Each structure stands twice: as structure tokens, then as C-alpha cells.
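hi! just following up on the protien thing from before. the input was this:
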Amino acid sequence: MKTRHLVIGSRSSKLAVAQTQYVIGKLKEFYPAWDFEIKTTKTVGDKIPDVSLNKIGDKGLFTKEIEEALLEGKVDFAVHSMKDLPTKLPKELKIAAVTERENPCDVLVSNQGFTIKTLPKYSKIGTSSLRRRAQLLHMRQDLNILDLRGNLDTRLKKLEQGLYDAIILAYAGIKRMGFMMKFSAISIEDILPQAGQGALGIEVLKDAHEIDDLVKVIDDADSHLAVDAERALLSVLEGGCQVPIGVAAKINGDRISIKAGIFSLDGKHGVKDEITGSKKDAEARGRRLAENILKERIARQILDEVKKDIGQSSW
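and the predicted 3d structure came back as:
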């Protein structure tokens, strides 16, 4: 194959660049002579680091500008954290590949090595995620959950400064950044992750067949199916990253199991369910699980209340 120069769209954060470099490394295994350039873009979510996400919306906060660059031909393809991508993509775009997924769990980071269960009462916990906040309070009403935004370096610095007793992060992020620290892994039985957490997606133009074929060599079929199932569930529940919905799909052989839950913002109410079936029907299983959850009256009440509280009446 002839040497080529390809431009990849990415967020400008250190983590996003590290993730894109990881994708380049995987592609280099197949195309060692090819040259890859990273074109970084600051998204709306990056430009407003001190405002709670639920106050600025959630539709493409970390992806819209990168997708615009892809649509305008400024980049050949884009790398995203799948948890950041809205369930509805622009009609001209698609996810061509999902790399092998990292552990999707969240972790608790504290200077004292606390776990969720050993945190002292009224501990100050930092997180920017309503999903994490709701599930924490669903477990323990005695915790003080405080808003925390910024990149990983900023969040960890605030922890070191004593502004929080502990903070919650995605395991995948701290591993990809190579951070060495004490943390306690949080079981998905306790806190369900965001749909797509731990997975990287490569987004391309639907009619860019050569690029599509190029990136497909690093697609991990099972990771792709699991993420598709989670996103299918999220789509039915009309949940963006600012709705307290957690979901985890796992594939074992030819079977898929999916666990999901929806929680009230105050953590007092929650509905959890799970489903298993053939992985060939991954997306259908995700949608079915969402429909099963919605059969519970409290689940619909939670959705209505959350939409009202975060001002998304247009959903």
C-alpha cells in the first residue's frame, strides 16, 4: 500500500490526544509506512470547564466541533470516547470501528485509600456526572456530593489541595494517561457506567469507503456490539450524558448480558434490570431492556423529573 498522510480529528485535552495516539499506534501495526497527523479542536465542553454540564446542555458537548471538521473535509476521520457521542449521529457520519474496550468501571480516588463503603459520613465527593451523583446517593444518602469539572490533572490537583475527600473518575482515563495513584475500583453492581465508557470509536463519513476499510482493521467486534447495545438502550430511554442512566453490556462467547438502571437525582429512587440473549441481537436486547425498565412507573417519573430539573423540555 502506498504511503499516505491522514489527518485525525480529536479533542485537545491530554487524555483525548493520548487516546488518539493509541489509535494511531494500532493502525501503525497494519500500515507502518503511513503518516498520521492529529488535528485538535476545543469543543464547547472544553471551553467552559467551570460550569456544570447540566447547565449547558449535553448534545455533542465534546464532539460537535470535531464532527463539523469531518463533514467539512478538514480531517479524514475522528477519534472519540464513545461515552461522549450522542446516540444520534449526523446522517452523513457513522462509527466505522470501536477499539478493544478498556474496563468500563469507575474508580474512587482518595488520599486515604477509601472505598465507597469506608468513606466517612458527610465526606465531600467530587464528580461532574449526574449518573455518578445519583448512584452514589442511591447507595449512601450521608455523602456530600460536590460538582467537579476540568481535565484529569485539574481534578487530581483539587483533590490534593483538600477541596474534596475523594473524587470519582473512569478507570480507562487514568490508565490511558498512565497515572500512578491509589484508587478503589467500583463494582458495576454498585455504580453502573455510562454507555460506551472505556471504548474508543472511529467516526468516518459514510461515503468515505477507503477510510472506512482502513480503520476497520482495528475494530473489536465484541466491544463494538456491546457498545451498540448500550447506546440502543440509551436511545430508547432518551438519555444523554446528563440523565442518571447507567448501563453495562458484557459478551461471553455468543451471548450478551446487559445490566442497566435509572436513578432519581436525589438518589432516593432507582430501577435496575438486566437481560441476556444472543449477541447477534445485541441492539435489540438493549432496546428490550430499556422497554422493560420503562414498564416501571417510577422509571417514567424519574425521567420526567430529571428532564424538568435540567431544563430539557424539548426532548
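The radius of gyration is 19 Å.
The CA atoms of residues 97 and 278 lie 21 Å apart.
cheers
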